[in-house]
Design brief:
The chain is of the alpha+beta class. Among the domains are: 63-185, Immunoglobulin-like (Sandwich); 309-435, Jelly Rolls. It has 6 helices and 19 strands. The chain has a 6-stranded antiparallel β-sheet, with no helix packed on it. A hairpin with a 2-residue loop joins strand 10 and strand 11. The longest helix is centred in the N-terminal third of the chain and has 26 residues, at 29-54. The radius of gyration is 23 Å and the shape is globular. The model is unreliable at 1-14 and 16-20 (pLDDT under 50).
């Protein structure tokens, strides 16, 4: 998704002037686009919460997944995931037990109902207390905690939690560690009712019906400053759609104007940068006033973490600026002095996902990533060439090949966990994707 956004998407958010004949505020196409893009971010998270509890998730209780067994856009197939929603209040915290983990990436990520990262628990954030007992508490709550418990204050009463443990070369050890993460409440918090907002299929972009859920959706506080004018706009449109004629007009505007704005913003995921056919978002995990990027990231890969944890690149164009096609064969060569392993403190990974639903490409080999732990073969000069093709190219080592499946365009997702150097500073872009 694009980070190039039209100037109109960056203008101050105020309703247009009133019609002099009716004294009724005129809701413009741009008003509708701004409000829709802002609200859709929240609806994506609310939809996932409803799906989570429908699937049996329980408050403050971790659900452990087998590797690869998650169903959301752009999953990281290199980690063992566990997840839940926590509920806390003035009298109750959620205790989190973190096992001792050495030499393997892990984190416990907390997000709010808009997809914003609130906190991470790991050795980078808590170097003096990297494991053991933690307590996620509501800011200002006066709760007696067990001795040697590290308190983590959250600004919201509920949060989405994901634990990630790097699979590495020993998956059984990663799964053992995954099961040692524990959660329990110190008291009896009173979790809120699950917001019943619009449900929609896959990566579908709904129409005017998004505004039918506006009142319920906006009950979740947006912690970023300056969002009140946008919320005023959302509420104004939500009231206007009660009129059948206005509802039809707004729906038509969404399909013609708003969807075009999203399509234009899509390649850059908001306000990012593209080089060599690879795009890097300007931010992830925390967004401030950049609601456009937040919506596009939630749409293309919900539960993104901050760039302190992981830096994402998306490759979708070849050396001739043509979209990647799964029937074609491509390669990327990293010079010996710019190998991916030199740019991370933990590990790197590349997955291929389809361009429509953002799921990993099925293939007979059931291999969905090339990463630091793959059995890679380096070129004689020390460089590294990776191949992406439906069949393994001749004389290419199996570990250097990621299978693709014919029949659809796709993109490559490059993750740098614990990025360093030019990657963390935003100066690096992977080499061009070439036909091979």
């Amino acid at each position: 998704m694009s980070w190039l956004v039209t100037a109109c998407l960056q203008t101050p958010i105020t309703l247009a002037q009133t019609d002099s004949t009716s004294q009724t505020p005129v809701i413009t196409d741009q008003d509708i686009s701004d409000a829709y893009i802002y609200l859709y971010s929240r609806l994506l998270v609310a939809r996932q919460q409803q799906l989570d509890f429908k699937d049996g998730m329980q408050w403050n209780t971790l659900s452990h997944h087998k590797p690869g067994a998650v169903d959301w856009p752009n999953p990281n197939v290199d980690v063992a995931y566990s997840e839940t929603w926590v509920a806390i209040d003035e009298h109750s915290c959620t205790l989190v037990t973190v096992p001792k983990i050495n030499g393997r990436y892990y984190t416990v990520q907390f997000l709010n109902g808009w997809g914003e990262t609130l906190a991470n628990i790991n050795e980078r954030m808590y170097p003096k207390h990297p494991n053991g007992e933690f307590a996620a508490c509501l800011q200002g709550a006066k709760v007696n905690l067990p001795a040697k418990t590290q308190r983590v204050d959250l600004p919201t009463r509920t949060a989405r939690v994901l634990t990630r443990v790097e699979l590495g070369s020993d998956w059984s050890e990663a799964e053992r560690l995954q099961l040692e993460f524990k959660m329990r409440s110190t008291g009896s918090p009173r979790p809120p009712e699950i917001a019943q907002t619009l449900m929609f299929q896959g990566q579908q972009l709904p129409g005017v019906e998004v505004f039918d859920s506006a009142t319920v959706a906006l009950q979740e506080p947006d912690l970023n400053p300056g969002m009140e004018p946008l919320q005023v706009k959302v509420r104004a449109i939500a009231a206007a759609v009660a009129d059948p004629d206005e509802r039809a007009r707004i729906d038509k505007s969404i399909h013609s104007h708003t969807f075009a704005d999203l399509a234009k913003a899509s390649p850059l995921m908001g306000h990012g940068t593209v080089k060599n056919g690879w795009g890097r978002p300007s931010t992830s995990g925390t967004y401030g006033s950049d609601y456009l990027t937040r919506t596009l990231v939630n749409y293309g890969g919900i539960w993104a973490n901050t760039q302190k944890e992981v830096v994402y690149y998306r490759g979708w164009l070849d050396e001739n600026s043509k979209p990647l096609e799964s029937t074609q064969s491509y390669s990327v060569t990293f010079p010996a002095d710019q190998l991916p392993a030199s740019m991370v403190n933990y590990y790197w990974s590349i997955t291929a996902t389809d361009s429509k639903n953002f799921r990993v490409l099925p293939n007979p080999q059931n291999r969905f990533a090339i990463n630091s732990h793959s059995p890679l073969t380096y070129n004689k000069d020390g460089s590294l060439t990776l191949h992406f093709a439906p069949t393994k190219p001749q004389d290419v080592a199996d570990g250097n090949w990621l299978p693709t499946s014919p029949g659809q365009n796709y993109r490559l997702i490059f993750r740098f966990y614990g990025a360093k150097g030019e990657v963390i500073h935003g100066e690096y872009f992977p080499p061009a994707i070439k036909h091979s």
